[in-house]
Amino acid sequence: MKKYSIYFLVILLSVGCKKFLEQPPDNRAVLNTPEKVSQLLGTAYPQANYMAFTESISDNVADKGIGGLYRTNIDPYNFKDVSSNQQDSPEFYWNACYAAIAAANQALEVCSKASNPESYAAQKGEALVCRAYAHFMLVTFFSKVFDPATAGSDPGIPYVLKPEKVVFEQYERKTVQYVYEMIEKDLTEGLPLIDDKQYKVPRYHFTRAAAHAFASRFYLFKRQYAKVVEHASKVFPNDNVIAMLRPWNTEYRVLTYNELWARYAKATESANLLLVETPSLWARNYVGVRYGLDATKSNEILLAPNVSGGTWIFRYQLYTGGTNNYFIPKVNEYFVRESVNAEIGWPYVMVPLFTAEEVMFNRAEANVFLNNITNVLGDLNAYASTRIYNYSPALHTITESRIKSFYRTGNAQQGALAAVLDFKRAEFVQEGMRWFDLLRHKVPVVHATVEGPTFTLGANDPMRVFQIPDVAKLAGIAQNPR
Amino acid sequence: MRFPSGRCSNNIRVMKLFWISISIMVILSTLPLSVLADPAQEFKVTIRSKRTALSEVFSEIRRQTGFVVFYSNDLFNDKEKISVNFIEAGLDEVMRNLLRGRPLGYKIAENFIIIIKAIDKKKESKASIVSPAPRVTSIDTIPDKQLKGKVTGKEEDAPLGQVSVENLSDHKGVFTNGKGEFVINAQPGDSIRFSYVGKAPRVIIFKGQSFLSVELNNEEERVLSEVIVTGFQNIDKNKFAGAAAHLKADEIKLQGVADVSRMLEGRAAGVSIQNVSGTFGTAPKIRVRGATSINGDNKPLWVVDGVVLEDIVNISNDQLSSGDPTTLLGSAVAGLNANDIESFDILKDASATALYGARAMNGVVVITTKRGKAGRFSVNYTGNYSTQFKPVYNDYNIMNSAEQMSMLAELERKGILSPNVLDRPNNGVYGKMYDLMNAVDGSFPLENTQESRKAFLTRYAMANTDWFDVLFRNNFVQEHSISISTGTEKSQSYFSTSYYGDNGWTIADRVKRYTLNYRNNYKFNDRLSSGFATVGSVRQQRAPGALARNSNPVEGKFDRDFDINPFSYALNTSRTITPYDKNGNLEYFRRNFAPFNIISELDNNYLDLNLIDLRLQGDVSYKIFKDLKYEFVGAIRYVKSSREHIITEHANMAEAYRAAGTATIKRNNKFLYRDPDDPEAQPVVVLPYGGFYNRTEDMLQNYDFRNSLTYTKVLRDKHNINILAGQQVKYADRQRFSNTGYGYQYDNGGTPFVDYRILKQTIENNFPYYGMSRDYDRFVAFYASGNYTYDLKYNLTGTIRYDGSNRLGQSKKARWLPTWSVAGSWNVEQEAFMQNVPWTDYLTVRASYGLTASMGPATNSSIVLKNINTRRPYLTEVESVINLANLENSDLTWEKLYTTNLGLDAGFFKRRLTMSLDVYQRRSFDLISLIKTSGIGGETPKAANYADMESKGLELLVGGEVIKQKNWGWKVNCTFGYNTTRITNARNNPLIFDLVVAEGGNRQGYPVRSLFSLNYKGLDHRTGKPTFADQTGKVSSDVYLQDDNINYLVHEGPVDPTITGGFSNTFTYKSFSLNIFLTYQAGNRIRLYPAFQTNYSDLDAMPREFLDRWIMPGDEKYTDVPSILDAFTQAQLGGAYPYNNYNYSTQRVAKGDFIRLKTVSLTYNLQSGWFKKAGVNNLLLTAAATNPWLIYADDKLKGQDPEFFNSGGVAQPIQKQVTLSLKVGI
């Protein structure tokens, strides 16, 4: 009897012990409902801003001789590896993308292990698209641009499919082709599962529209133009493009600069398909950096005649901050103080990752390659009607012949592409979007400096690929050739 | 990386327990004269003689056995001659034969044989050793003899009244009268016990004499063998192989110092105490044998009567010196009444701390509290009355108001104090002057003429305000403690209560503390005993209203908004500022665009801390068999503290929210509300009425219990075995709640007026206006320890322990950790060869090796997910998301430590010279550090067990009684501890700022917490601004402190001292005793007070160094004190902070070595018959001075206390104080 009671006690003790020690040390979250997985996915978007380094490496900027000196601006301009791992640097962006991927993978692990996977469908959809997006951005910046001829041999970036559970996990780069296949797989599997009704703040999540927008960009890079058109068209309900574009000609033009700053990256703007909050200094720096939008470049991009024959409305919101610092008040800062009364804290920038404008341009570009010039013109005219000062269809309608004469070419396709890219350049100036076009079309970039030397980034220059962080070597990842 | 607020348009460079379980190792006496062994059998006698007188036979017995035979001559004639023939006969046999045929019996006790009248024939034949029990029946038959006697106290040299005199045979007792006389019934051979409070009890065997003189000695002199209390066991020092120090509370007590942890300074070798703040409730920085962890806590584990004292809040290494309000809860022992403490045991090596296993890495301090004693009734009162001295400007290097005013004149000339100062949030004399010249209402109270300006400024130049006098006072600190101790063999009780009251060294603080301690022990029978204790304390404290500080690596400084710490205010505020105007009214200057006066502010902005701490503790001990004992110890503790931050409507902090006088102020006042949806609107006031009522609550619920079995056996006298096995469970839940109350109207009946926009502002800034967090600590352990001692010469101890905790997260793998230790010692003095060395009392050689551990600062053995609010500017866009705070680290484990310890203990010349030497080497591994990873997993710097460190050290304790005479005495005690650490492996990636701050930083190859400096390269020839080797190695005045290139920094040394110790001298003459105690430390480096700024206002106090500053080009050859920049040069700095950098340069470092006269105390033990008549047994008067003199410190410190971090907030330096102490025993 006594013996049994001792056995009983031992069993009771060991079971009790286990339960006792299973109490988490703090009130951390446990992912046990679809709602919580949704909340986790709120952090599956790369919280880093690429604007500084992509804008600085692009042909939108010139050397002013003086101005704010930041490595995230100086190094890309001089086509050097960026020696900073802080906000706005490629390394910071690399880390943010993989942090987003980690959140997505964590969510996917819960979705796949759940006893009722069907109630996790929407979450799975968002997570897959998020994972695809972050990998797409990584392969775009840190690998050679997709080229069907070489994609099978160009090293890609590690495509991470499961949560990391040890301190030093090993990864491999594989090829750009592989990464593109994986992105397409995740995207096509995830997109149909997305359910817009799941989101509390839809504009900060991959809604169907935002996912289609991403697909349009992805296929544009993958050169599958029909798919671009297909996905892009799903962004615009009833194909009403104008309703979704930023109301520059009407509302924006009368805003004060403070008001425009406040509005540009707000969720209520129908043009903003996907927004993300990023710790970034770009809002305070984009005006005053040494290598930025100066008089020459603003002339070239915003003030020079364009194919419509009219004047960009942008010039009415073009400001100067000090000498030779030109800017459009579109990148605003949200400053999060360290404590209620502190003077220091974290500057944030809300970044529109996908906009209606981009989708429209993606469709136009795809139509150029599909040789549907009419459709290109349709989109360009819709766009022009919102961006040309005192727009009058009679005066400003873009036609094939107008393109041919403006660009002095007999090739309507070539002209239309030039028009699309020029419009896009003006639309997204200072937002870093130009770099994507320069990449896709392998456009060389020439940077003159006040000191004398002029640097050229050739069409196949290895410096077109941003350098993978040094620490990645710890995971067995080779850096890009230099 | 953090950045300053504000958009920069262009060109602006942005920087950015136990009754005792008593496992009383039942010390089965192994003394040669074993009481338990039967002497009657053991001693053999051989006597052959014819017709010898009985007396001669008795002499022979004495010669052979040492037993003295006592008898009364009326019993028989000792000249009677008899013949005897005993060969190897037992004493019993001999005595029975000798007394045959006589009506006599005998008794053998100790080393006496007492011949008495036989009780009756039957009994005599039965047994000759009469045990006390049958005596009870014989009382009627044999009339007791009356024993008369007198008791005197040796030390008092006077009769003692009220001494308990008890006949242990019949358990009847009497008390001595006032002359020390007593009469008690006793039979020869009875044991009589004399006991008296404070005296060692004495048992005397009544040998039939008619008068007995008894002298009682003071208790302390009784101690022959020391006992080490580990909290789990009490172990005889000669069986203990670990490194530990035992300190008696009475010997180290600092009169008038409320916090017991501060008493350990300099008392135990290898224990370093740095008083980083002297404020009540804050903890000193305590290190037992230096640091063991890089990022984790390095504070020792506090154990009170066998139960671990959990911290109310966890305070990290850096927070200790931060001055943050939370530090008021930092000291684990702040609620203990120092008078209740019996002793401290500091357990240092792996063997000593082994039973604490995975929590023992940083050493253990075991506190044993007083308990009631059998047969003694005593009441003791202790009163301490102290006053603390105000600081004086002579100790500090600060300009007087005339010097300061001439500096301000220079600032004015350099264009810094122009009327533009009115745009600034803070200003002083000049600001006031311009304000009066530009009065808004159109009147011009001050004419803008040279004369009127001069007249205005002259008053302030002459002011020479003594801020210390204004803000400090010679306060009165009183501490009253009463204890009542009583008890019988069956039950003992100890009751104490105390009050500590300090009306405040500064006008902003005061403390009251009440403690209660009620402890009862019961012995139900020989097998079962138990004890219960109720310990409680209540604290009410006021402190200046302080907020937590923020580190600002951008400019290279720590920021604390609205800091009104009186000490830092006095040091930092210009002496030209006057607290009162000409009419004697409070005079206000501008701060945060609102009127500010420190006296008024301290009245209107303060913290009220209330704390209640209650602990119930119980233990049961049951002897299952003779050698096997079961014990239970358990405690429940409940602590609740609330901190109310009262900010009335008159506080500057509230007024700042209402400062919107001019458009400029509106634009610059950061406390006004700017609606993000209306970017063009003017900032508006959102706190139109009232102040703030901010409340923070901390709660701790904790229980801890332990079941153990102890087996103790002595085999053939020589083999001593002790085995302990047990199990322990700990539970601790902590909760923190904080709330910001807006618009509370203190003057208007306490109605809150809340403008919704202030909540909107708070929320839009991503701050919740309230918060609550919980923390759960669960802990289970199994342990076993075995000790074997052979012939008192050789000891061998081994311990294993298996700990389980939830702290690392939900992972079965990481949860459990085994720890172990082995130790051995050799008591050399027990060896035969040592018997010829009479001057050596003891000599022990010890060695130990073992593994201990500690919980590191990481909890991610399973993934850590935390909800956060997204940082988005519009409330409609903010959502609650789950952030992946830390990835799972399946390899995460505890921080561990291997310690090797070699020790030597020796005592010579009847313990007049004692010493103890320990050398140790420690290897910490699996330390948790943030390391950089590829980032591909999604977390770049990860917390992982990826750092190792080594430490080495030596500890020496030498004690001596230089003079030991009846009236004179001189005792010396000296401790010395040396410890060095080196991080052998750490893949962290520190920034320059992490390494140059006063708290030091961690870098591979260097000691833990090393101080680094920017390499100062002289002053700039043209502007006199300082230059340094910057992050790229170039000479520049612009060093980017957030850069991770640390190769150009200069290593100064560790922040923690490598050498610490104390030197105590006690001189006694008759009833006087004088103690002089010095403490010292050396080997560390201190960052000097950050006196230099880019920009000075008319509010700042400047150090006198400025008088030697660079004034014109060429001066850089003669001085290293940088210039004061003119407005133009300031504008040219372009976001560089050379002056803040200067504060972090090689120029601003001092050696931390110091020798401090810690206490001087004179005690008079008042002994007079007069008191005795009044019923007072003893009366001790002590006058003590604490911290009176810093004998040596680096000259560069210029008054700065080498221990104190002047960090503002609630921090205060340790005070100089004098205490009068009265101790009365009834």
Q: What's the CATH topology label of the domain at 231-369 in chain B?
A: Ferric Hydroxamate Uptake Protein, Chain A, domain 1
Architecture per CATH nomenclature, i.e. the level-2 architecture of chain A: Alpha Horseshoe
Radius of gyration of CA atoms of chain B, rounded to a whole number = 36 Å
Number of separate domains of chain A: 1
Number of helices of chain A: 18
Oligomer: heterodimer
Shape summary of chain B = elongated
Q: Quickly count the helices of chain B.
A: 22
The CATH superfamily of the domain at 231-369 in chain B is identified as TonB-dependent receptor, plug domain
Strand order of the largest sheet of chain A: 2-7-6
Order of helices and strands of chain A: HHHEHHHHHHHEHEHEEEEHHHHHHEE
Number of strands of chain B: 59
Task: State mean pLDDT of chain A (0 to 100 scale).
Answer: 91
Q: How large is the radius of gyration of chain A?
A: 25 Å
**Shape field of chain A:** globular
Structural class of chain B: mainly beta
Residue ranges of chain B: pLDDT <50 for 5 or more in a row? 7-37, 120-142, 220-224
Mean pLDDT of chain B, as a whole number?
Answer: 83
Structure description:
The complex is a heterodimer of chains A (482) and B (1226). Chain A has 482 residues and is mainly alpha-helical. In chain A, 44% of the residues lie in helices and 9% in strands. Chain A has helices at 2-21, 34-41, 51-57, 71-77, 90-113, 121-142, 176-190, 208-222, 225-233, 257-264, 282-285, 295-303, 356-369, 373-387, 393-396, 400-406, 412-427, 434-440, and strands at 62-63, 272-279, 291-292, 319-320, 326-327, 333-337, 344-355, 445-448, 454-457. In chain A, strand 4 (319-320) and strand 5 (326-327) form a beta hairpin. In chain A, helix 2 packs parallel to helix 6, helix 5 runs antiparallel to helix 6 (121-142) and helix 13 runs antiparallel to helix 14 (373-387). The longest helix of chain A has 24 residues, at 90-113. Chain A is globular. Chain A starts with a helix and ends in a 25-residue tail after the last strand. In chain A, 55% of the residues are buried. By secondary structure, chain B is mainly beta. Chain B has a 22-stranded antiparallel beta barrel. Chain B is elongated. The model of chain B is unreliable at 7-37, 120-142 and 220-224 (pLDDT under 50). At the A-B interface, helix 1, helix 2, helix 5, helix 10 and helix 11 of A face strand 1, strand 36, strand 38, strand 42 and strand 43 of B. Strand 7 of chain A pairs antiparallel with strand 1 (3-4) of chain B.
